[in-house]
Amino acid sequence: MNIPRTSFPRIVIIGGGFAGVALAKKLSKQEVQVVLMDKHNYHTFQPLLYQVSTGGLEPDSIAYPIRKILKDFPNFYFRLASVEEIDTKKNKVRTNIGDLKFDYLVVASGSKTNFFGNTEIEKHSMAMKTIPQSLNLRSLILENFEDALLTSDLNERNALMNFVIVGGGPTGVELAGALAEIKKGILPKDYPDLDTRSAQIHIVQSGDCILKGMSAKASQKAEDFLEKLGVHVWKNVRVTNYDGKMVTTDSDLTFETSTVVWAAGVKGATIKGLDAEDFITRGNRIMVNEFNQVKGFEHIFAIGDIACMATDEHPYGFPMMAQPAIQQGDQLGDNLLKIIEEKPLKPFVYKDKGAMATIGRNKAVVDLKNWKFQGVFAWYVWMFVHLFFLIGFRNRMVVFVNWVYNYVRFDREARLIIRPFKRN
Amino acid sequence: MNIPRTSFPRIVIIGGGFAGVALAKKLSKQEVQVVLMDKHNYHTFQPLLYQVSTGGLEPDSIAYPIRKILKDFPNFYFRLASVEEIDTKKNKVRTNIGDLKFDYLVVASGSKTNFFGNTEIEKHSMAMKTIPQSLNLRSLILENFEDALLTSDLNERNALMNFVIVGGGPTGVELAGALAEIKKGILPKDYPDLDTRSAQIHIVQSGDCILKGMSAKASQKAEDFLEKLGVHVWKNVRVTNYDGKMVTTDSDLTFETSTVVWAAGVKGATIKGLDAEDFITRGNRIMVNEFNQVKGFEHIFAIGDIACMATDEHPYGFPMMAQPAIQQGDQLGDNLLKIIEEKPLKPFVYKDKGAMATIGRNKAVVDLKNWKFQGVFAWYVWMFVHLFFLIGFRNRMVVFVNWVYNYVRFDREARLIIRPFKRN
C-alpha cells in the first residue's frame, strides 16, 4: 500500500465505526500519521438501521463518507480495504489491497451477527447490521406483500405476512414496533385487495424479559407498548431452527413464516492473527486491559464492540453499543499521544449515560442513571439524542424532515424495492 | 392474476412512468377498473438520475411508491410484474406472475438505452436510465478513485480518472457538468494524496452541436459553460467501440478510460406481440394515430416514449421526454372515458412547454417558446421546475434540503459505495 513514511509515528486504525471515528477525530491535529481502513467508504449510524429496513429513512441519510470526516485533517489516509490478517511479529497488516506496516495498531472492527453456529438459520434468516443488509430486508418485506397478493393458498399467504424477530434487544423491539405501525397505517391503504389484518409480528426472546440491559420498568413498559401495537411477545422461548419455511423452538411453539430477522446476538468481528484463544473471550471479543491494550502488546489496541474490558461492574465487558465505543476511541486518542510523549497512561472509566429504545409513535423508554421514564417525553428525548449523534448537518436535516413528515402523515415513503432481494 | 372482474371495463396500463401515472391519475374517480403493472414498485423521476450518480441526491428522494400514488383511488390495482407478451387476439397480457385479460390496454413501457447493436459497448459501458443503474455508476466512479490511489502505473491511474460520456444530450451534459464540479470541489479534499487535477471529463458527440433539440444559443452557451468547467467537448466524433479499456472513434481520437457512460440514445422498450414491423417505426417506437391508438386496434393504445405519433412538425414523433408523456397520459384518460361513453375522441395536440438543461452551479439553459435565457436565473428556473414536477411533498423537501446544502457547502454527501459495482 503506497502510503509515504514520514517522521511521525504511524497509527493504523481498522474500522470506521463509532470507535474508530472517535479515535481518528481525537488524533486529527497531532503529530502522528493515521491510516484508517474500512470495508465501506462510509460510517454507518447503526442505531437507525431498523428505520431503513422499514422505509422510514433513506439509507444515505444514516451513512456518512469517511473521507469527509477526515478531510481537514493533515497526515490522514483512508483506504477502502478488508484486513485479512494482522502480523503481530512483523507489525504489519495484510489486506486485500496490500500490506502495511504500523507503529501502533488499533482494532476497531466492531461486531457481526452471531448465529451461534446454526448454519441453517444463518442461510435463511435476515441480519440487520449493515446498510446493504437493511436494504435487503426492506426489499424482502415489500416483496412478501406483493407475493401475498398472488397466492390463493391461505397458508402461504399467511407465511408471507408473518414476521418473526428473534431477539428482544433494542434492535428486535424497535423493528417489531416499526413493522406494527406499518401494518396499521400503511398496509391497508397500499394493499386494499389484501386482508392485511392477518399479518402478524412476533418477537421471540430466550430470556424472561425484553430489553434485558435496561430497567425492569423499561422492559415492562416496552412490552406493554408492543402489545398495544399488536406485537406478539414470546418470552422464555429459544428458537432452535429455521429452514426457510418453519421456525421451530424449544417449546411446542412453531411459526410458519417467510421472514425471520435474526437479532438474537452479535459477536466480535475478529481478524486472523488476533483470533487465537489467547486473545479471545466470550462473544468473540478481544481481551484488553484498562488502557485498551491487547494482552502481550504495548502497541496493539482494541476498542469498541470488538474489545472486552472486564471490570467489576462489567465482568464480561461493556455493552456492545455506541457509547462505550465512542468513549474508548476518545480516551485511546489521549493515551496514544501520552505513549508517544512517554507519559503515564490513564485507565479507561466507562461513564454509563443510560440506554433507550423506541417502540413507536410517542412510545419510547429511557433509562438515565437517576431517572427512568417512558412514553411521549421519552420518545422526544430518543429522537433528539439520535439526531444529535448523527454525523453531518445534511443527514440531520434529512432525517428531521423525514421524521416530521412521517409523524404528521403517519407515513414511511421509502417503501421502495430498489434492488429486489428474492428475485435477485 | 387474481383480480376480480366487476361491471366496470378493465383498463390495463403497462408502466408507471410519467405517462402511465398521468393516465392513472386521470382515471382515478371514474367508473373503470384500472390495473397498473410495472417492474418496479416505484415511479422514477428520471431527469434527476444524474444527481444520484454523482452523489448529490439520495435515490429514495427521486423515487415514489406507485401504490401510494394510487392509494385513494377506488377500483385500482397495482401489480409488480414484467409483461412478457401482449396477445392482441385474445385481449390479454402474459406476465411473469400470470395472465390478465383486458378491455382496454395502454402500453406506457417507456424507453431503454440504445447501444445500436454494439454488444461490446453494451457490455463494458454504463447506462443511466434506472435507479439501480445510476447507483452502479455512483459506486463505479467512487471505486475508481479508491483504485487510482493504489496503482503506481500512471496510465492505469489516468484511465481510472478519465470519464468518457458518449452523447451530448441533456443527460450527457448534466452528468459531465456534475462530474466537473466534483473534480473541482470534492476530489482535492477527499483525495489529498492523489493528483486529481489530471482527472478528465470528455463528452463525445456525433453531431455538430450539443443539446441538439434546443436552440443554437442554448447549445452554444452550454458548451461555453462546460468548457469553463474544464469539460472536453468533442463534436462530429462518433464512438465506434469500447473494450473496457480503450474507446475508439471514427477519427484518430481514442480515450483510455475505465468509465464510459453511454448516453447516446434511447429506443422504445417494446413488448412481444406489438413488436412486429407492422407496428414499429424509427427508434423502436410503436406507431400511433392522433388518439394514441395502435394501428389496427381501437382498444389498444401507446403513450409516452414508446409511442411515435408522427405530425407535420414532428415527423418522427415527439421528443422522448417527460412532457409529451404526461400530456398524452392526461389526454388519453379523457379519451378512454369518451370511448366508454361512446362520444367522439379528441385528437392529441402537443403543447411544447420548452426545454432546459443544467450544467452546474448557477449555470443552466432554458428555451421557452418566446424566451430563451441562460445563466443564474435559468438555473433557478430549472430547480424550481424540477422541484415542482417531483412527486410527493417529502421528496420535494428532501431534494430541497440537499440542494440548499450542496449549494452553500459546495458539497455532495451521498458519495457512498453502498453496493460495490466493480468488486461485486
From TrEMBL, chains A, B:
Catalytic activity of the protein: a quinone + NADH + H(+) = a quinol + NAD(+)
Domain of life: Bacteria
Domain External alternative NADH-ubiquinone oxidoreductase-like C-terminal: 353-407
Name of the protein in question: NADH:ubiquinone reductase (non-electrogenic)
Keywords, in A-Z order: FAD, Flavoprotein, Membrane, NAD, Oxidoreductase, Transit peptide, Transmembrane, Transmembrane helix
Transmembrane segments: 376-393
EC number: 1.6.5.9
Residue stretches making up the FAD/NAD(P)-binding domain: 10-329
Pfam family, one: Pyr_redox_2
Family to which the UniProt record says this protein belongs: Belongs to the NADH dehydrogenase family.
Enzyme class: oxidoreductase
Organism: Hyunsoonleella flava
Matching InterPro entries: FAD/NAD-bd_sf, FAD/NAD-binding_dom, NDH-2, NDH2-like_C
SUPFAM superfamilies: FAD/NAD(P)-binding domain
Molecular-function annotations in GO: NADH dehydrogenase (quinone) (non-electrogenic) activity
